[in-house]
Structure formats: C-alpha cells, structure tokens
Amino acid sequence: MMNRFPSTIGIRLLPIRRTLCSTRLLPRLSPILITLSPKPRTFRHGFSTRPALRSADSPNSSSSKPSVLKENIYTLPNLLTVSRIIACPILGWSIVEGQFYLATSLLLYAGLTDLADGYLARRYNSQTVLGTILDPAADKALVTTLAVTLTMKGLLPLPLTAIILGRDALLSLSAFYIRYTSLAPPKTFARYWDFSLPSAEVRPTNISKVNTALQLVLMGATTVSPLVPMDVALGLQGLQLIVGTTTIWSGLSYIFSKDAVRLVSSKTKEKPPP
C-alpha cells in the first residue's frame, strides 16, 4: 500500500503489520526522513507529488545574493605608474651621488610616463580605482624622493621640505584610515591589501593638482640647476615660496572639500534570478 508523509520524501512500505508501522516505526522515521531532504525536489511515480519547500540556498530561490565588486588592476597605465615608483630609489641615489645627468633623464622618463598612463587610461577606458590611488602616490613618491635628496645636497631649504613631507604624511595616514572604514566586511588583513577590492576613490582637488605641478616644476628646476651655466637662485627662491603656500592650501582643501573621497564599496552587482 502507499503511505504519504508530510515530509519532502515519500517511501513505499512493504506489506507489514499496520499497527507496527503506525505505533512504532512511523514516529521514528518521519523526523529522519525530513532531515535527509536538504534540497527541494518533487517526487512522482509512486512517491509524493506535493512540491517541496523552497530553501534560501536554492538556485531557484527568488532571493539573490550581492556579489563583491572587483576590477582588473593589471592594466598598462597602472604598470607605467608602478614603474615610476620603482624608478624613485634610483633617482634618489643619482642625486646623492651627484649624477645629475642621470637624474635629469629619470625625471624626463617620469614626466613622459605620467602623460602616457593618463592618455592610455582615457583612450582605452581602462581607468581603475587603484589607478586613482597609484597615480598621485607615484607623484608623491617622486616629490618626496627629490625633496629629501635635494635637501641632503643643500639645494632645497629644510623648512619647505618639512612642509611638503608633513602634508603628505597626514594625507597618507588619512588614506589608510579611509581604506579601513570603507572596506566592506569582513575586514581582514588579506582583504585590506587586496587592491582588486575597491572601497574608496580619491579625487584630487583643483588646488592639489596645481600644487603637484608646481612641486614637480620646482624639483625639476632644482635638479637641473647644477647643469645650468647661470645663477637661477633668485628664481628658485620665489618658486619655493609659491610651492610652500600651495602645499598648505592643498592640504586644507582635502579637509573642507566634500568631493575629495568617494566611497565605492557600497556598489554591488546582483545576480539576476534564473
């Protein structure tokens, strides 16, 4: 005979005593049979034809889970930016050793790659959130290397170097804090340093762009000055005063600007229901 249970599994019983099944066997089998059915199914051909209950983990469930937003960080613009960062120690060594021709060549390379990575990112639509962080980081690494080594050679005043390095240090600490607070959970060490998981996008302010350009002009002119057969000290002093002012101004602009940082970790892509 056919017996049907309220569980998601039906079973065909052998002809045994009815009283034994109803009083002893069935109360024990029913919980076990319910437990043994983790996925929804519909049974036919002698089994129960009642549809099973939907599970939250079922692929047929109407609920969809948000997927983590990831991006391709291995792009040519990012590689060019990283190459500028790698060139900074060589640039610093060349200045300390008085190899100003080599230092000038590396400055020219840094300038060309800076133009190239921006053009390629826009031309081939390969902008990444990591690129918005790497590009200013490469500029700051270049400026920091030049500021420290030129100060060591006595070509740059120490107070100006302190202003430049102090502003960059505060911005770097702020970036680490923003990265932690904007990273989607779970906040693990591996996820924190996984830059394919974007969490916040840094947008330089207008005065910050002007300041970076002026800093690079000052560092480049100071680096080339030992090779120039004329006295350019007065012009460099005026440029140093301007750079000191714009450095302080740009640092304050990040505090009062509402568009300097944009959170992107809240963006998720939902899988469409099957």
What is the secondary structure topology, with strand pairs?
Elements: E1 2-3, E2 11-12, H1 18-35, E3 66-67, H2 76-96, H3 100-123, H4 129-152, H5 158-182, H6 189-192, E4 200-202, H7 206-224, H8 233-256, E5 261-263, E6 269-270
Antiparallel strand pairs: 1-2, 3-6, 4-5
Helix pairs in contact: 2-3, 2-4, 4-5, 4-7, 5-8, 7-8
Give a quick rundown of the structure.
This protein has 274 residues and is mainly alpha-helical. The protein is built from eight helices and six strands. Strand 1 and strand 2 (11-12) form a beta hairpin.
Which key features would you list for this structure?
disordered C terminus; 6 strands; transferase; two-stranded antiparallel sheet; two-stranded antiparallel ribbon; 274 residues; mainly alpha; disordered N terminus; Four Helix Bundle (Hemerythrin (Met), subunit A); 2 domains; 8 helices
Please describe what this structure looks like.
One of its GO terms (biological process) is cardiolipin biosynthetic process. Keywords: Lipid biosynthesis, Lipid metabolism, Membrane, Phospholipid biosynthesis, Phospholipid metabolism, Transferase, Transmembrane, Transmembrane helix. It is a single chain. By secondary structure, the chain is mainly alpha-helical. The chain has two domains: 1-46, no CATH class; 76-265, Four Helix Bundle (Hemerythrin (Met), subunit A), CATH 1.20.120. Helices cover 58% and strands 5% of the residues. It has helices at residues 18-35, 76-96, 100-123, 129-152, 158-182, 189-192, 206-224, 233-256; strands spanning 2-3, 11-12, 66-67, 200-202, 261-263, 269-270. The strands form three sheets. It has a two-stranded antiparallel ribbon. A two-stranded antiparallel ribbon has the order 3-6. A hairpin with a 7-residue loop joins strand 1 and strand 2. Helix 5 (158-182) runs parallel beside helix 8 (233-256). The longest helix is centred in the middle third of the chain and has 25 residues, at 158-182. It is globular. The two termini are 39 Å apart.
